[in-house]
Amino acid sequence: MLTALYMTGSWPVLRPYVLEQVDRLTRQRLHDPQASVDVLRPILSTTRFSPPLPVLIAGGALPDGSFLPDTELPHHAEHATAAEEVVKTIYPSLPPGYQIELALEIAPQKLAFIATLVSSKSSSDIDTRTEKKDTLELLSPAPIGQAAANVTRWFSALCEIDIPEHDGLLKTSQAAVGAFVQHGKSTNTRRAYRSAIRGWCTWAARHGLPALPARSTDVATYLADLALRGRKPTTIELHRAALRYLHHIAQLPIPTAQALVTETVAGIHRAPGKALPRQVKGLTWDMMCEVIDAIPMTTLVDTRDRAILLIGYGGALRRSELASIQLEYVTLDDDCMRITLPQSKGDKHNKGTVIVIPRGITRFCPVRAWETWLRQSGLKLHKKTASDRSTTAAFPRIWSPPTSKPSISSPLPKIGTQSLSDWSVAKIIKQRCLAAGLEGDFSGHSLRRGAITTGAQDNYDLMALKRFSRHRDYRVLETYIEDDHALSRHPGKSRF
After folding, report:
1. CA separation for the pair 238, 268 (Å, rounded)
2. Angle CA 484–489–491, to nearest 5
3. pLDDT at 107 (0 to 100)
4. How far apart are CA 200 and CA 6, in angstroms?
5. What are phi and psi of 397, to 5 degrees?
6. Distance between CA atoms of 454 and 100, rounded to whole angstroms?
7. DSSP string covering 212-277, please?
8. Which pTM value belongs to this model?
């Protein structure tokens, strides 16, 4: 049985995403677009999902003091019971006083089961009536002085609120304030804050400390505890920012601004023995050609992944930007393709950013890869009414058909309507690099980093690279450039 539903938005908006992955009987049971969480939870607790959903272990502090980040398990699950069995492989025996809570996360980009290790006492302190309230009722008031588990759920619900439609009611406008405040942060930032607050609340509950409001001495102790457990300074800064944001939206004094917290963080940054930051490998042009040549091009997934890699490189795109490309915002002409990004990291006011990728003549041309993908996938723009604001994902999920008998022709792959998640884009990059036999730590940022590095190796100046990468700061831009020619370019080489 699912303990909770984590919905990134309202049910009317998220319902089409769920219907796409459930069986016919469940689709009939989910006919009401205005159904409450109390109605949805038992239905989705017994639903079979196709394809199976990923199972994640939520980050938090374990009873032994170690920290468990959000971790995706290798096995997926078709339903909640199967997800519980997968989680049992991680926790064959639970520590005394702890239990597993299983939730279903429903977001526009993905569905997933999320398991959390919680204290039985903290869980029993939760008012069961709270679970029967809708999202708007969960948001007000802030759970000041309540159990840490209540704070976790309140903050999670706040991070997931969608902008309501105008109906002239004061209550709706008041709820919209919280929604607009949340949309001031990017989706990735809200996701990171939610994980950080979950970790803080788990730690506070374990030590019997108040989670909201937090005392500055407790916050400093928590950040020091993270440092002792080997967490990176950037991760500790994230937890500090999340706690500051938690108190900001709860309209409480900010404990992270106290001198004790500030000096603790400063000492963490200067402490000896820190681990070196992760060095993600850039996918330079020569490496990119190796990866592209290693793609067999025998399936529709191969065609899609090839277009993702080349377009991501050609536009120096972030993985979130790649995942968010919509067919309506891509135009082609004889010279180039133009991709409009309604939202991006550097566009704080969402004015829109236009990415231009020139047309080439080789098999590695991103524009040609895009045209091949469109031709083979059959993606097309649909006629829409004036009130229809839906868009078509440029890189949707693709589900391979089940293996058929030799005498029966294989069915065509199923193309979804929703975009790949940014996690999926990063996974594609890693898998394709591994299949090509490349050595190094590749990630979702490898395309962007490799494109900038290649531009620097081709002697483009920093101004041209800054325009290409859309960085706002030259200092940040320089960190993206990998210089493997430190010896040949050393200023003293011709003088020594």
Report:
1. 13
2. 140
3. 75
4. 19
5. -70, 145
6. 48
7. SSPPHHHHHHHHHHHHHTT--HHHHHHHHHHHHHHHHHTT---GGGSHHHHHHHHHHHH-TTPPPP
8. 0.63
Please list the residues that pair with 414 across neighbouring strands: 399
DSSP-derived 3-state class of residue 378:
coil
- Give the DSSP letter of residue 345: T
492: tokens are 């003293």
Give the per-residue pLDDT at 63: 46
Report pLDDT for 138. 36
Instruction: Report the helix count and the strand count for the chain, using DSSP H and E.
Output: 20, 12
Which segments of 367-475 are extended strands (E)? 396-399, 414-419
Q: What span, in angstroms and rounded, lies between the C-alpha atoms of 82 and 113?
A: 10
Give the span between the Cα atoms of 195 and 284, in whole angstroms.
33
Residues 6+ apart with CB under 8 A from 174: none
C-alpha 418/C-alpha 399 separation (Å) is 12
End-to-end, the C-alpha distance of the chain in Å comes to 73
70-74 contacts at long range (C-beta below 8 A, 24 or more positions apart): 70/195, 72/423
Residue 88 CA: distances (Å) to CA of 49, 74, 76, 262, 442:
20, 13, 13, 40, 31
Quote the pLDDT of residue 165. 79
Question: What are the mean pLDDT values of the chain's consecutive 10-residue runs (496 residues total)?
Answer: 75 82 86 80 89 79 47 84 85 68 80 76 42 40 82 79 78 77 76 88 90 94 92 91 91 91 92 70 92 93 95 93 91 93 77 90 94 92 63 85 62 80 89 92 90 89 89 81 62 66
Res 136: pLDDT: 39
User: In angstroms, how far apart are the furthest CA atoms of the chain?
Assistant: 79
The three-class DSSP label of residue 118 is strand
In this prediction, residue 8 carries a pLDDT of: 64
Query: Could you tell me whether strands 4-7 and 98-106 are parallel, antiparallel, or unpaired per DSSP bridges?
Result: parallel
